């Protein structure tokens, strides 16, 4: 059983959905970013997605674009991101870490070398936005062979005919994108999302988590009623941005700002569990 | 990587959109279904004589095709001076005479007719120099479609005349403020729009790049340039040309000219990338000469990037060439050696811009001025019976304010 499987099983045993938090590696600088990472589990995050910054994040909205730019400006590289995972893993054995980003930096690092280094650093899974099932030979199949989960995005445009192809090589969990759009934009229609989650669950036994457009504890609670997990990203990197000083540097409130929001989101996810139980 | 000898250079892409190792479909899942829909719709249209007949009608009566193949007598004579009895005979393929002023309209017409067949009512496009944006805005006006054009904020500034044209044609021009605020960022923003409005919207990509089937489809729509050139040069000279020259940003005008000649082994083919301030300066847009294979905007191709795989900002005086990538079929033709890729600097392009204006009474766009700049180098090395065809892909009206500004004192 993988670390991801164990964590979803534990949340299920508590009768609640998992909280999946996204932050960008190196935002706003390497030290603060590692401090944020370390704070996430104690604030209530169940799984952690770490964004690998890229110059051209085509599926992301302004919040994650800006956070990637801050990280790159601070000198973040894929090598440093893997170092950060290693440093996090040294003090935290149970919380799954999923690297999320775009293919080019991995391709340039070298797929085989990347998979080996990621595995050794303590990475559990990968989400690569611009690798649909049509390109599975590139990274998905090698990742599965290397013992890493490859988590696929399913979207409102993924119809029943296409869903089996999307799910075929997916492992760990399925990430349902709640809107047709970019990260951090529209607020999803929660009723429609619940129906879509049910539709996907009819095709797979994997946990289904929902992301894009989830900003508050209330949103998280609404999603958590029907899904196995909720992903929050843009709202967290926006909290980082709001805490920075005039020169874009971290302040004393940067880590706590993220911690506080994660706490609210975790409470939202847990409140939904009570609603289901009642 | 070893490249297998090929029977034909015209057989690509394969069913997954690969030209050798290049191409592919590297897009977010939200877009994958629509990409497959475009592929299916295009395959059906291609086999439908009614679609081709509709295209031919508009190409003749709206675009104004065929565009002339013009013998540039004074340029030829000028380049023979001091060439020791040498100097190729130079022909210009006059794509700048098309409606909207460039080759871009050939592709846009095809894609807009396709979008209509697909029932899409809203069209989006990216643009660099604004030529693709103007062509898209024009055909959207003609067919009553909503049109949104993404253009880097830097390009909005340096190509003002085209921004006004697009607005007059009824398009909404969105200046893109992210990243380097040029063509690549306009493409990112167009992709973000498409992900958001995928149900209603057709993305009209302006060059031979992006996810499959765009590189092949755009090439097919532009191949009329090369097909006409073949017929015209045969009529004028009784034989095929000895060489072809075209500028390359994404590479659509070049692919359109080159494609019908790829299997004519005796035809030398030269693609001219933008060398900006010079290749050594690091400030250029020559992806093949100065880049390496990577993945961006839906395809694997040569890209300008750093050691971490972060995409570099390109530089060129020409907004239409200011892109850190190149169409995947060019990457393939580069690796197989079929096409020779060279580059021209900003300065060389400016000189060629002035030269053609003064010698032939034709003000070229800054993009094909790069091709002319290399003709100036190549032609004097060739014998006088060497026939060289250069694609004059656009006219320079849009560049007049920028060039006047740069050459300031002379005007």
Give a short overview:
Chain A has 278 residues and is of the alpha/beta class. Chain A has helices at 3-13, 30-43, 62-73, 78-91, 103-109, 111-121, 140-145, 163-168, 190-201, 217-224, 234-243, 254-277, and strands spanning 18-24, 47-51, 97-101, 125-128, 149-150, 152-154, 174-177, 208-211, 229-232. In chain A, α10 (217-224) links the parallel β8 (208-211) and β9 (229-232).
Structure description:
The complex is a heterodimer of chains A (278) and B (411). In chain A, strand 7 (174-177), helix 9 and strand 8 form a beta-alpha-beta unit. Helix content of chain A is 49%, strand content 14%. Chain A is globular. Chain A has 12 helices and 9 strands. Chain A has one domain (3-277): TIM Barrel. Chain A has a 9-stranded parallel sheet. By secondary structure, chain A is an alpha/beta fold. By secondary structure, chain B is α/β, with parallel strands linked by helices. Chain B has 2 domains: 19-61 and 103-218, Rossmann fold (3-Layer(aba) Sandwich); 66-101 and 223-410, Rossmann fold. Helices cover 42% and strands 18% of the residues of chain B. Chain B has helices spanning 32-46, 49-63, 73-80, 104-117, 131-143, 153-158, 160-168, 183-196, 214-222, 224-237, 252-258, 287-290, 328-336, 346-360, 366-378, 400-406; strands at residues 18-19, 22-26, 69-71, 89-93, 122-127, 146-152, 172-176, 201-203, 243-247, 268-276, 292-296, 298-303, 340-345, 387-391. In chain B, the strands form 3 sheets. In chain B, strands 3-4-14-9-10-13 form a 6-stranded mixed sheet, sandwiched between helices. In chain B, a hairpin with a 1-residue loop joins strand 11 and strand 12 (298-303). In chain B, helix 3 (73-80) packs across helix 14 and helix 5 runs parallel beside helix 7. The mean pLDDT of chain B is 96. At the A-B interface, helix 3, helix 5 and strand 6 of A face strand 2, helix 1, helix 8 and strand 11 of B.
């Amino acid at each position: 059983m993988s670390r991801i499987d164990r964590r979803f099983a534990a949340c299920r045993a508590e009768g609640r959905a998992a909280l999946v938090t996204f932050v960008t590696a190196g935002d706003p600088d390497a030290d603060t970013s590692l401090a944020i990472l370390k704070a996430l589990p104690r604030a209530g995050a169940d799984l952690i997605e770490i964004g690998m910054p890229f110059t051209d994040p085509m599926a992301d909205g302004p919040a994650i674009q800006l956070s990637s730019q801050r990280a790159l400006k601070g000198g973040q590289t894929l090598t440093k991101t893997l170092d950060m995972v290693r440093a996090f893993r040294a003090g935290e054995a149970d919380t799954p870490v999923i690297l999320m980003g775009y293919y080019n930096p991995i391709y340039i690092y070298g797929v085989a070398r990347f998979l080996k280094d990621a595995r050794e650093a303590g990475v559990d899974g990968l989400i690569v936005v611009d690798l649909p099932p049509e390109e599975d030979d590139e990274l998905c199949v090698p990742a599965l062979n290397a013992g890493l989960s490859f988590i696929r995005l399913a979207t409102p445009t993924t119809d029943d005919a296409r869903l089996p192809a999307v799910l075929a090589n997916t492992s760990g969990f399925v990430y349902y994108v709640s809107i047709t759009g970019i990260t951090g934009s529209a607020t999803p229609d929660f009723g429609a999302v619940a129906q879509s989650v049910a539709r996907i669950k009819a095709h797979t036994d994997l946990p289904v988590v929902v992301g894009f457009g989830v900003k508050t504890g209330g949103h998280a609670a609404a999603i958590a009623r029907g899904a196995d997990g909720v992903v929050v990203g843009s709202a967290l990197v926006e909290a980082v941005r709001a805490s920075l000083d005039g020169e874009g540097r971290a302040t004393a409130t940067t880590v706590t700002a993220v911690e506080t929001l994660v706490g609210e989101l975790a409470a939202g996810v847990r409140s939904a569990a009570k609603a289901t139980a009642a | 990587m070893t490249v297998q000898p090929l029977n034909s250079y015209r057989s690509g892409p394969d069913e997954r959109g690969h030209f050798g190792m290049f191409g592919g479909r590297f897009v977010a899942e939200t877009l994958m279904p629509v990409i497959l829909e475009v592929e299916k719709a295009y395959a059906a249209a291609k086999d439908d004589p009614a679609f081709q007949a509709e295209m031919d009608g508009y190409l003749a009566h709206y675009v104004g095709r065929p565009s002339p193949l013009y013998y540039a007598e004074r340029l030829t004579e000028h380049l023979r001076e001091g060439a020791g009895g040498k100097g190729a005979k130079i022909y210009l393929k006059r794509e700048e005479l098309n409606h909207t002023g460039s080759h871009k309209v050939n592709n846009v017409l095809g894609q807009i007719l396709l979008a209509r067949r697909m029932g899409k009512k809203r069209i989006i496009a990216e643009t660099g120099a604004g030529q693709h944006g103007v062509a898209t805005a024009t055909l959207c006006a003609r067919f009553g479609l909503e049109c949104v054009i993404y253009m880097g904020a830097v390009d909005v500034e340096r190509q003002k005349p085209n921004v006004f044209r697009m607005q007059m044609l009824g398009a909404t021009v969105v200046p893109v403020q992210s990243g380097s605020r040029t063509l690549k960022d306009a493409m990112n923003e167009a992709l973000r729009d498409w992900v958001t409005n995928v149900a209603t919207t057709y993305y009209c990509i302006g060059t031979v790049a992006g996810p499959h089937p765009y590189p092949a489809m755009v090439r097919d729509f532009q191949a009329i340039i090369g097909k006409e050139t073949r017929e015209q040069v045969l009529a004028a000279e009784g034989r095929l040309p000895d060489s072809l020259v075209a500028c390359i940003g994404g590479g659509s005008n070049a692919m359109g000219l080159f494609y019908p000649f790829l299997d004519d082994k005796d035809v030398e083919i030269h693609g001219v990338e933008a060398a900006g301030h010079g290749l050594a300066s690091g400030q250029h847009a020559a992806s093949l000469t100065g880049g390496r294979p990577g993945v961006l905007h839906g395809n694997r191709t040569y890209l300008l990037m750093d050691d971490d795989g972060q995409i570099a900002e390109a530089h060129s005086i020409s907004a239409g060439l200011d892109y850190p990538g190149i169409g995947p079929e060019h990457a393939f033709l580069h690796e197989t050696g079929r096409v020779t890729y060279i580059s021209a600097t900003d300065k060389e392009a400016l000189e060629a811009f002035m030269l053609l204006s003064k010698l032939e009474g034709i003000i070229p766009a800054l993009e094909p001025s790069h091709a002319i700049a290399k003709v100036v180098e190549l032609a004097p090395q060739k014998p006088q019976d060497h026939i060289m065809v250069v694609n004059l892909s656009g006219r320079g009206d849009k560049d007049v304010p920028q060039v006047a500004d740069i050459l300031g004192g002379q005007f």
